[in-house]
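**Sequence with structure:**
===
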Amino acid sequence: MTAGEWIGNALWSLIPVAGVGLIVWIVFRAIVRADSKERRIYSEIEAEERAKRDLPLSEQQAKKGK
């Protein structure tokens, strides 16, 4: 086996690993983004409901407003 064949085989063996790693990264990124979006929307809904009932802002929203 020549050095060129060895390097080629090494690169071909890394492609599936890199592909699976990319897929895992994309899935995790989507999960994290969906979670943060859900939390933001929930906070907006909670603020609207508190405003309807004339309740004070939650502690987290009060900190954001400062």
In short: Residues 22-66 form one domain. The first helix runs from residue 3 to 52.
